[in-house]
Amino acid sequence: MENQVPEIFNVIPHTHYVLLSTILFVIGIIGVIVRKNVIIMFMCIEIMLNAVNLMLTSTSAYYSHSGGQIMVFFTMAVAAAEVSVGLAIIVMIYKNLKTINIDAFQKLKG
Amino acid sequence: MIDKIFYVLSALTIVSATLVIVSKHPIRSILFLVLTFFLISAHYVLLNAQFLALVNIVVYAGAIMVLFLFVVMFLNLNEDVEKHKSFLPWFAAVISGGSLMLIITSALEKSLLMSPYPTKDYSIGLVENLGSVLYREYLLPMELSAVLFFIAMAGVMLLSRKEKLN
């Protein structure tokens, strides 16, 4: 396991991983555009972050450089902090407006 | 064998990510998102990145998704947020997302074809190797992420305390 090259690097070209993570990123973007539930929009942002993570990990694994996987680790840490603060803000807005429809959030301007 | 595993796993990932954005109820959406994270962890195992697979399951499927589930149950979303059914936003979103996908794939494919494949060791993703890199070369960002978590925790406490004073 340590010395031999795993089979996937010879069988699957790296372009397929690029295509897969691009499709996941686009699914996240479509969700953010279409849905009006703020929590589901947040989850679509998580899908986009995971697509970028998959891209970084696959590139780092194929080129055997550890920088991409370290970057994924820090992306996960920042995403965890972001989710905790964002969900607290959503709960606060729900307490004031009694809805989580994104159309009601335009009261946020100024 | 492993190419079949890869294609089945990729198809399952795409289908479950699509079900996240099309399902009506938020709880169902969250459960499909957990499934998506587990499938992406399987991709990490396939790529010989065991450390990230473990961290992905623990952090995303374990911590973040439980937070989402708790908030959705806390908010008691009985009424339907999206009442009107219109296909125009879906149409516009799929058109714009598809054009973005074409642009990204064409740009990345050009850049990937130029670069050579160096053959070095493929065991960088194991827990031991990545941990030693993380604690030797990236010690300062590691500590700074701890500071970031502390600031996030303090911010959440401040946000939830401000309402009580008013």
Gyration radius of chain B, in Å:
21 Å
**How far apart, in Å, are the first and last alpha carbons of chain A?**
58 Å
Strand percentage of chain B lies at under 5%
Ends apart, CA distance between termini of chain B = 63 Å
Report the sheet-strand fraction of chain A.
under 5%
Helix content of chain B: over 70%
Q: Stretches of chain B where pLDDT falls below 50 for ≥5 residues?
A: none
This entry's quaternary arrangement is heterodimer
Regions with little confidence, pLDDT below 50 for 5+ residues of chain A? none
What features would you highlight for this structure?
heterodimer, A: 110 residues, mainly alpha, B: 166 residues, 6 helices
Explain what this protein looks like in three dimensions.
The complex is a heterodimer of chains A (110) and B (166). Chain A is an all-alpha fold and 110 residues long. Chain A is 74% helix and 0% strand. Chain B is built from 6 helices and no strands. In chain B, helix 1 runs antiparallel to helix 2 and helix 2 packs antiparallel against helix 3. The radius of gyration of chain B is 21 Å and the shape is globular. At the A-B interface, helix 1, helix 2, helix 3 and helix 4 of A face helix 1, helix 2, helix 3, helix 4 and helix 5 of B.
Please write out the topology.
The complex is a heterodimer of chains A (110) and B (166).
Chain A: H1 8-11, H2 14-34, H3 38-62, H4 67-97
Helix pairs in contact in A: 2-3, 3-4
Chain B: H1 2-22, H2 26-46, H3 50-75, H4 88-114, H5 127-136, H6 139-165
Helix pairs in contact in B: 1-2, 2-3
